[in-house]
Amino acid sequence: MAARVQDEDEVDHSEPPCYLVRPSDNVYSFFMFVGPTESKKKNTDKLTWDIVMAYILICLNFFMQSILVWLVFESVVVENLNWQNGILSLEDGVGNLFEEAPSKCNQGGALCFVDGNGVYTCSPPSVQLTGRWEELDTNKDGIWTWEEVQASKEELMCKYVVDPQEVFLVLVEMLKLREDIIWLHPDLKAGKMIHHSYFEYILGDLVICGYRSEDMCPNLLQRGFFSKPLEHGTSPRVGTEIESALRYCRGLLAEGGICENLLPSTYATWKVQSQAECGEPSYSKFVFQNPGNKVEKSLLSVDYGAREEYALAQEPQFRIFKAIILWIWLLLMFCEFKETWKIITVVMRYPAADDFGEDAVLMEQDPADPEDVRYRIQGITSKHRQTMGILCILRILITSALMIVGVSYIIKTNGYVDLLMNGVTLLFVADVSNILYSQVLREEIRDQTEDIKAMKVPMYGWEWLNRQAGLLDIVCMVCLWGLVYLVMHWNLNSVTLPIYKALECTCLSSGDECFEAQHFNKPWWDNYWMKIIPNVFKEVDALKATVPGAALFIHTQSNVLDQPSAMLYHEQLESRIETIASENMDLENVVKKLEEQVDKPIHYFKAKSMTASTSSKVATKNLMTTTSTTTMATKSANAASSTMRNSSLLIQKKKAVTPLKAFKHPSKLSL
User: Fold this and answer.
1) Residue (of 37, 86, 119, 114) closest to 445 by Cα position
2) Residue 650 has pLDDT above 50, yes or no
3) For residues 490 and 246, what is the distance between their CA atoms, to the nearest angstrom?
4) What's the CA gap between 533 and 248, in Å, rounded?
């Protein structure tokens, strides 16, 4: 049996494992092979114009790739990192793209921060502060005093980036706006202290301010936050109609609304920043049924582009799609490094040209085209070796930068079309050397550097593995997939999930790990409307009893009273009316007796009280014996008239209060 003819480009098994370095269609390969072939072709060691062109193309390639990589890094990667840093600040700051310089205090650069328990806090600083009563009432006496504010000012400012003195005064002003509904303690109006009952009362408005945009109001209805007052009519702020609830919510959150006007300037800053971070709003229709009157209304719930984008990034099919794009990119970069390593091996191990003399480069007839020639490089000069070594170092640097920027560019992209287009963009940047080679150089010089015999150079590394070329390819491919898995896993847990949770907490105030979403949830709002508010008025009544002269205080300017105050007011009026009515009956009996002793009827005193004195004088002249009796009658008539007017006013007030008795359930009273 005849032995198989071995190709001259193959490596014999008796030889050590070798690389076969062949020409490729890029400027690096052109630079490597044009120098030796031009020297042989022109029989000179001087520079030729084609060699000069090789230097120009190399410089142009490095310049263009460096500029493109730098611009992509600055305009895309760094901008994305700044955006992430604007959303979330992790206290541990370990292993994440958005790590900030360690600091003892919250710098306020991010919308959210994560505490030691992994809980996200993303509400405005003033709301974050007011949501933690236990940190405000330091002596645990149920009163937040001005002295406590001053004592803990530095600590609270360090943690929440807001002046607690400013927040304290804001709460006082917000409570003063509700003075027609709730009685305020004199010390509160003086800005000396805020009792816990008042703090709980105004907390509902402050929590609503944390939802940032009036577009969120339908979302709050959908979550059932206003269901109890709509069903039971327990709050005039909310009312019993869908429109009234939306009006209350929008009055707080609208541009120039109560929240913007009263809360500290940090709130306005937070609102603008959060709107920028959350992205464009998107709306979806839903039908809401009023739990009270069962009226249905179509509303639009809002979501935001940034949150939706990071929600997509967690879907399995999208992660597979991104992993494929990432693997292709890493494979391209691996091939670049592999080619560079081959050239480094040539630089380190290929024979010197001096060992071959004039035969360092041979010109041979091309078997495929007898009229053409091809070159065989047997040795390289020391100058060319040094130049190639420097070129390899520069190529490794630019390829490394391109790989890192490309990976960052790919993993930050969370959209099918965007990811595909970004991948194409990166391939274009990486292909600059090929484009320059194929588009700039003439065909003749390309043929000269392409028709070159492969250069055999011994490999570095483990000889057994180097001989198993197929196995080595499999190992490289598996390692690339392993690298892709590690990058995707790290990106999911260190970037995507934290940012998604922060966006969910910031934009929608929802999420299992969001402090505001879990603390101020539907059970909290139900308890707030049904229990906290009624208890607040009871506690305020108790406070009122401790203030001299305040126990009988009546809100003359208020049209709506809470149940305890209304019932107490009714009882006081009823007692006073009964007393006056009894006294009036006694006076009427006296007047009747006096009428029998005078000529003129008692209606004369009622109709013409201004002439009572004159009539008394005439009666005195005519009836001297009844002088003292007439004087007593006049005084009694005037007293009776005044008493009847007072009684009439009180009876009118009683009629206004009497309907309160018709409420069988305390929850029906407007609070």
Assistant:
1) 37
2) no
3) 43
4) 17
Q: Catalogue the E-assigned strands of 96-138.
A: 112-114, 120-121
3-state helix, strand, coil in the chain (%, to 5): 65, 10, 25
pLDDT in tens, 232-281: 888 877 889 999 999 999 999 998 888 888 887 778 888 888 888 898 99
Residue 144: pLDDT band with limits 50, 70, 90:
very high
Give me the DSSP letters along 484-550. Answer: HHHHHHHHIIIIIHHHHHHHHHHHSS--TTBHHHHHSSHHHHHHIIIIIHHHHHHHHHHHHHTSTT-
- d(CA 186, CA 194) in angstroms, rounded, equals 10
Count of Cβ atoms closer than 10 Å to residue 450 Cβ: 16
Q: What is the pLDDT of residues 21-53, one digit of tens each?
A: 888 899 999 999 988 888 888 877 788 899 999
Are 668 and 568 a contacting pair, CB within 8 Å?
no
- Residue the block writes with tokens 């460096």: 66
For the chain, the structural domain boundaries read 20-84+323-501, 561-668
Count H helices and E strands in the chain, helices first: 31, 11
**What's the pTM?**
0.69
3-state secondary structure (DSSP) of residue 284: strand
- 587 and 639 Cβ atoms separated by less than 8 Å: yes
Query: For the residues 160-178, what does the mean pLDDT come to?
Result: 85
User: Dmax of the chain from CA atoms?
Assistant: 171
* Cα dihedral across residues 190, 194, 195, 198: positive or negative: positive
Length of the chain: 671
Q: Is the CB of residue 325 less than 8 Å from the CB of residue 410?
A: yes
Most confidently predicted of 46-60, 68-82, 362-376: 46-60
- CB burial of 401-419 (b: ≥16 within 10 Å; e: otherwise) equals ebbebbbbbbbbbbeeeeb
User: Whose structure tokens read 């090789």?
Assistant: 54
